[in-house]
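*Target chain*
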Amino acid sequence: MSYDPNTITYAVSIHFSKEVNELISATEKEIAEITGNDFMIENKVPPHITIGAFHGTKKDEVRLLQNVEDFTREQEPGIVQFKEIGNFNEKVLFLQPEKGEYLVKLNEGIHQLLLPEYEKGENGYYVPEVWFPHMTLAIRLNQDQYKKALPCAQKIKLPLRANVSEISVYQCSPFLLLKSFAI
């Protein structure tokens, strides 16, 4: 399948327990208040780790959702442990998890299932060979915002263990939750 500009980018992400979600959401709100950068809040981006991004057409969406639902049914509940605060060029602030067996299995499995039918999305950043798992706390930060945001993120007690509760499929641009499946 070659890239078609009329396709939609779909993200497949994992989500966490209510307690972890509340902690991360509170941190995102504090960062937004202190920095004035409310991208995560304004766009209603929930705490998550993206395990795959794919291009597909609207007509293939039902099949994509069914594939992810079937994949989720085969997964065991798991735990992700966040070990440190990280950043991408001081423009994105995130929690970095250990890239353990559970996360690797999810990432590899979703790609084995979907890449035969769908084109890799997001410039291939989520394919197993280059994937860098992270949970974004703030994005599109300027230098001053980053300096203000970092102390907020550092309030999170690490290591942070998080139970994976579901796998979800999102449409990107505009960001829209399509469906979530409990693990």
Q: What stands out?
A: Helices lie at 18-35, 39-42, 61-73, 101-114, 143-153. The beta strands are 8-16, 49-56, 79-88, 92-97, 119-120, 135-138, 160-171, 176-182. The chain has a mean pLDDT of 94.
